[in-house]
């Protein structure tokens, strides 16, 4: 097969059980199927036993399905959606520490920050920390703007995504611990023995 | 009723219908072994000699019966010894549940004696695994483990139980309800539009072929596949693990496909205009070079594992579902068809193949594996369960022992695990005590797990061991002959005297050097109710043909020589 340079990225959103080892299972899957993770974020949802991941993978669209079907095979993965094809909101957050030790750089930084959804959240005599929230593209653009001033440190959270409108990505899943406790209670109330 | 974790394990296994488990005790699993004594009459434990044997026995049991096989081991080295068996079961979709002891919860992560992160180690080679940290979840977890192992695309599931969880007591509550796992929903039926599309491709095809895989056996779709083949007159090519999906003497069956498949199958695949792939996964040993694979064919691919569809071969119609269910949807609307020209063309290839058959040769003074296998086939009425190891004898078994029934050839196809055959045969015998079982193994693979001879003797397992001994790692030697200019690096073997070894274990045995001696030896083995061993001393440098070299085009086979050509 001819080598095709893959430039596109796939964004997959997965609802997973909030249990130890789930991140390991997903990381292991990506490694053994040779899917290259660009960014991966995990966080809690409004339901304590459900976590939500946004996984960004460097791959062509044909890979999106492969990734989704493989993820769906994991027992702890409740639901998977490839979000690129639907209207969605995505956000990345960057903290960028820049050189800030002369009037010139201070002015440049302030001026650039005014043009972007960015703000200076910490200022010292030598460096300042800028917080920038936006889409991946606009953050990339912003970074290129401040780069000449001198970036000394940087961290990004990776992209988080959510589909727009009323197509809700949620689950009514109840985890095992809750079920076991419910069974325990039911047993106690009706005295049923197994 | 309050029970200890160890007793909950036993009660749960009983409720899952388990009556035999294969295992080996050790410190961290000792409470569970202690509980076994109360259950001895209902739950038989087979003491193996190496935990790898336990995992292969559970696998052999599962493949022979379609039920879940159970193996049990202690923490650390006990559990890591299961790894090869779990990986084997994973690749071949075999349903086993492994229960391992773990160090007590407070010791986890402290590099305690015999501590290994077993759920970590087995993560990529199990369908799912658990570390149980609360005795109240134990029963539910075991029920879930069996459910996951046997449903959808089956596979191995491991449950790691710390020693203190085995000792802790709780009310035993067996969950009566069906398991509900929101993240686990194997596909079942096809959509009507998919059935329409599949029927259209079948109707439009002049040169169709069915690729019959392991999924047919797992789904129990033998009758449906046969009806599909017969009504639409579609030739059927089998994968190695698909053997038994259709009786091999059926006129539409055209042989095994792939690297050592029959020319009739491989050429038919390359010339077909439609592949109907049923419960198979287009493994590289089946396709050869993907860029030239079945270029003229459209593809219908039906498999229960959604991620298999479009993985290696792009499907024109891909259906994720249970094969029996999907075919039951499809058959009522399937029109009868015939393809006399196509079938005639395949007949010609079949005739050419039978002209090249090894069995046509007189071979005075030497014994060929093909002859041994074919004679065992005749002497067992073609009706035994054969369990092979991996290598030349495995491929020759596939070529020279036609199987009529499902689950009568048990072999490590995906992982290609040497050492699988003999212990898997022991496991199969526990599952199918009334069947005649032959472990057909090479001299190399047998030596990897021959310690299980002691298990076979202790349990008096009626398994016949046929060692095909060429004093070589034969398949590796074949590759060295073909691709490494006969540099036989690390393939010649100095072997023990297998018959004396059998004597030492107390196993009745024979050694066969001439074809004329085969019948007598096989009859001898059949007459003994217990393990037997026959060593067949075969030609050292036998070749397995046809052969598609790794990565070559499927039609680019090294054929068996025609008589007079060799």
Counting copies of identical and different chains, the oligomeric state is heterodimer
Number of domains of chain B: 3
Give the total of domains of chain A: 2
| Overall average pLDDT of chain A | 86
Q: What's the CATH class of the largest domain in chain A, please?
A: Alpha Beta
Mean pLDDT metric of chain B: 96
- Give the low-pLDDT segments of chain B: none
- Percent helix of chain A, as a range, is 25-40%
Helix content of chain B: 25-40%
The total of helices of chain A stands at 5
Indicate the CATH architecture of the largest domain in chain A. Answer: 2-Layer Sandwich
Write out the CATH superfamily name of the largest domain in chain B.
Answer: Thiamin diphosphate (ThDP)-binding fold, Pyr/PP domains
Distance between the termini of chain A: 60 Å
Nearest-angstrom radius of gyration of chain A? 22 Å
Q: What is the CATH topology assignment of the largest domain in chain B?
A: Rossmann fold
How many beta-strand elements of chain A?
A: 9
What order do the SSEs of chain A take from the amino end to the carboxyl end, as H and E?
EHEEHEEHEEHEEH
Principal-axes shape call of chain B:
globular
Low-confidence stretches of chain A: 1-6
Would you mind describing this structure in some detail?
The complex is a heterodimer of chains A (194) and B (566). With 194 residues, chain A is an alpha+beta fold. Chain A contains five helices and nine strands. In chain A, helix 3 (103-115) packs antiparallel against helix 4 (136-150). Chain B has three domains: 2-171, Thiamin diphosphate (ThDP)-binding fold, Pyr/PP domains (Rossmann fold); 192-352, TPP-binding domain (Rossmann fold, 3-Layer(aba) Sandwich); 364-537, 3-Layer(aba) Sandwich (Rossmann fold), CATH 3.40.50.970. In chain B, helix 3 (51-65) packs parallel to helix 5 and helix 16 (369-379) crosses helix 17 (392-400). The termini of chain B are far apart. The chains are: A alpha+beta (194), B alpha/beta (566). Chains A and B meet through helix 1, helix 2, strand 4 and helix 5 of A and helix 7 of B.
């Amino acid at each position: 097969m001819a080598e095709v340079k893959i430039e596109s990225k796939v964004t997959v959103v997965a609802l997973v059980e909030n249990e130890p080892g789930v991140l390991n299972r997903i990381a292991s899957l990506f490694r053994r199927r040779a899917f290259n993770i660009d960014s991966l974020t995990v966080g809690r949802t409004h339901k304590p036993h459900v976590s939500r991941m946004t996984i960004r993978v460097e791959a062509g669209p044909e890979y999106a399905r492969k990734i989704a079907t493989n993820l769906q095979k994991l027992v702890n993965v409740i639901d998977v959606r490839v979000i690129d094809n639907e209207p969605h909101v995505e956000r990345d957050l960057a903290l960028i520490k820049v050189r800030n030790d002369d009037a010139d750089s201070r002015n440049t930084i302030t001026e650039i920050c005014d043009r972007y959804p960015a703000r200076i959240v910490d200022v010292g005599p030598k460096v300042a920390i800028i917080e920038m929230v936006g889409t991946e593209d606009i953050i990339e653009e912003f970074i290129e703007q401040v780069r000449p001033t001198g970036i000394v440190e940087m961290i990004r959270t990776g992209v988080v995504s959510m589909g727009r409108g009323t197509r809700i990505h949620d689950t009514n899943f109840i985890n095992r611990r809750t079920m076991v406790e419910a069974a325990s209670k039911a047993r106690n109330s009706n005295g049923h023995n197994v | 009723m309050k029970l200890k974790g160890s007793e909950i394990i036993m009660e749960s296994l009983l409720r899952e219908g388990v009556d035999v488990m294969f295992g080996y005790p050790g410190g961290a699993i000792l409470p569970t072994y202690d509980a076994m004594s109360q259950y001895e009459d209902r739950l038989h434990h087979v003491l193996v000699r190496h935990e790898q044997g336990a995992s292969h026995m559970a696998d052999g049991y599962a493949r022979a019966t379609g039920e879940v096989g159970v193996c049990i081991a202690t923490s650390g080295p006990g559990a890591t010894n299961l790894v090869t068996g779990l990986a084997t079961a994973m690749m071949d979709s075999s349903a086993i549940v492994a229960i391992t002891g773990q160090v007590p919860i407070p010791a986890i992560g402290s590099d305690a004696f015999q501590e290994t992160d077993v759920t970590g180690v087995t993560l990529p080679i199990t369908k799912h695994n658990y570390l149980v940290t609360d005795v109240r979840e134990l029963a539910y977890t075991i029920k879930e483990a069996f459910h996951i192992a046997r449903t959808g695309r089956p596979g191995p599931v491991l449950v790691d139980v710390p020693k203190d969880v085995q000792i802790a007591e709780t009310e035993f509550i067996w969950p009566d309800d069906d398991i509900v796992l929101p993240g686990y929903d194997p596909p079942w039926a096809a959509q009507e539009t998919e059935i329409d599309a599949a029927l259209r491709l079948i109707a439009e095809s002049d040169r169709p072929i069915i690729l019959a895989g392991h999924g047919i056996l797992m789904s129990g779709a033998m009758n449906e596949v046969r009806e599909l083949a017969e009504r639409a007159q579609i030739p059927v090519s089998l994968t190695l693990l698909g053997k038994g999906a259709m009786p091999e003497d059926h006129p539409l069956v055209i042989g095994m496909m792939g690297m050592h498949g029959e020319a009739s199958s491989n050429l038919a695949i390359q010339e077909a205009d439609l592949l109907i792939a049923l419960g198979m996964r287009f493994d590289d040993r089946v396709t050869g070079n993907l860029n030239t694979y079945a270029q003229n064919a459209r593809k219908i691919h039906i498999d229960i594992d959604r991620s298999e569809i479009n993985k290696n071969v792009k499907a024109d119609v891909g259906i994720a579902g249970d094969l029996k269910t999907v075919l039951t949807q499809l058959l009522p609307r399937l029109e009868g068809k015939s393809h006399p020209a196509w079938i005639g063309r395949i007949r010609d290839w079949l005739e050419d193949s039978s002209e090249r058959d090894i069995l046509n040769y007189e071979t005075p003074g030497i014994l060929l594996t093909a002859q041994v296998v074919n004679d065992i086939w005749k002497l067992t009425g073609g009706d035994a369960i054969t369990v092979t190891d991996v290598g030349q004898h495995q491929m020759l078994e596939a070529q020279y022992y036609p199987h009529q029934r499902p689950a009568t050839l048990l072999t490590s196809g995906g992982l290609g695990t040497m050492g699988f055959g003999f212990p898997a045969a022991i496991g199969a015998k526990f599952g199918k005590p009334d069947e005649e079982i032959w472990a057909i193994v090479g001299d190399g693979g047998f030596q990897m797990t021959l310690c299980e001879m002691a298990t076979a003797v202790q349990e008096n397992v009626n398994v016949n061991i046929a060692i095909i001994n060429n004093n070589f790692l034969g398949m590796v030697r074949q590759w060295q002959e073909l691709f490494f200019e006969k540099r036989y690096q690390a393939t010649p073997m100095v072997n023990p005297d297998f018959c004396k070894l059998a004597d030492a274990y107390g196993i009745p045995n024979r050694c066969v050097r001439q074809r004329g001696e085969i019948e007598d030896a096989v009859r001898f083995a059949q007459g003994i109710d217990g393990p037997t061993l026959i060593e067949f001393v075969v030609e050292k440098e036998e070749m397995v043909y046809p052969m598609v070299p790794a990565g070559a085009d499927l039609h680019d086979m090294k054929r068996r020589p025609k008589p007079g050509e060799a």
